[in-house]
Specification:
disordered N terminus, five-stranded mixed β-sheet, elongated, alpha/beta
Length: 170
């Protein structure tokens, strides 16, 4: 009987698995020594109530509002990425059957993440890794979903700045 061979995990998956417990214990640890970030905002699917450019401006305003915060510099190795994924869903789709006067709902999530370039022993080049992230669900009427997205983006930016300030110290 020959020994069973277990395939090795791809290096990126192994890094993420190893980094997960540390990130859970100290969410701000990956934000240390992050002097600059590039901002990226993505809204997919498109939402008529919010534009990616407007959300990116709101993030930049929050970062420049005072206190220690990373400088916004396009092309930086660190990226502060905002991903908004809120879809328009009918009440019929949610229930599975039609009712008169049913409405539309905005369902999805708003996610803010910091990606940094890391080197992994045994991997030929640098790898992008998420070192901090926060995500909030959106579950509201379609008419209110644009305002809910903006509110959540501001709350996530405040949470990021709080963790950043904790990571860099007084």
């Amino acid at each position: 009987m020959s020994p069973t061979r277990v395939p090795l995990l791809p290096p990126l998956i192994a890094v993420l698995l190893l980094a997960a417990p540390a990130a859970a214990q100290a969410p701000a640890a990956g934000l240390g020594a992050l002097p600059r970030v590039a901002l990226e905002a993505v809204v997919s699917p498109d939402h008529p109530g919010v534009a990616a450019e407007d959300l990116a401006r709101r993030l930049e305003t929050a970062l420049r509002a005072g206190g220690p915060a990373p400088a916004v510099a396009p092309g930086s190795a660190g990226v502060l990425r905002l991903t908004v994924s809120v879809s328009r869903v009918s009440a019929t789709e949610l229930r599975g059957f039609y009712l008169p006067f049913s409405g539309w709902y905005g369902l999805g999530s708003v996610r803010l993440a910091v990606e940094r370039t890391v080197t992994v022993q045994g991997v030929a080049g640098p790898v992008r890794a998420v070192v901090w992230q926060a995500e909030r669900p959106v579950q509201t009427s379609w008419q209110r979903s644009g305002a809910a997205i903006v509110t959540l983006v501001e709350a996530l930016a405040a949470g990021f700045l709080e963790d950043y300030r904790r990571a860099v110290g007084p």
